[in-house]
Amino acid sequence: MKNVVFILFMTMSLVGYSQSKKEKQFKSEISEISKELNWTQEESDKALEFYLIRYNEWKAAKESDNKKELNKESRKKFDDNMKGLLGEERFIAYKELDKEKKAEKKAAKEEDEDKNE
């Protein structure tokens, strides 16, 4: 019985650690975006909340048979929440910046892969 409790405790600790690690990553990303797009602290806090919800939904969908459908719904809900928070014009600016950042990450990843070959 002690082993079961110990294993359960360790599993919960790891889940908590990975969540806080992901939350730190999102905070860093949002901070960068926030500076570039002049978000208020309230907007940044709400965006973090939306990012975490989206991440948790993605993790849940990953285990599901209809992963593609669930991810599509989750992305739509995330975009709707962000659009409601920022308004149409600022949401478009956010999406453009998001695309740029993703392209930069992809290019950096490809560059690293080329160096390793």
Keywords, please?
mainly alpha, 117 residues, single chain
Separation of termini?
50 Å
Give, in order, the helices and strands.
Answer: HHHH
Low-confidence stretches: none
- Percent helix, as a range, is over 70%
Mean pLDDT: 85
Note the total helix count.
Answer: 4
Word description of this protein:
It is built from four helices and no strands. The N and C termini lie far apart (50 Å). Helix 1 packs across helix 2, helix 2 (41-62) packs antiparallel against helix 3 and helix 3 (67-86) crosses helix 4. The radius of gyration is 18 Å and the shape is globular. With 117 residues, it is mainly alpha-helical. It has helices at 2-37, 41-62, 67-86, 88-116. It is 91% helix and 0% strand.
Provide a brief overview of the structure:
Helix content is 91%, strand content 0%.
SSE inventory with pairings:
Layout: H1 2-37, H2 41-62, H3 67-86, H4 88-116
Helix pairs in contact: 1-2, 2-3, 3-4
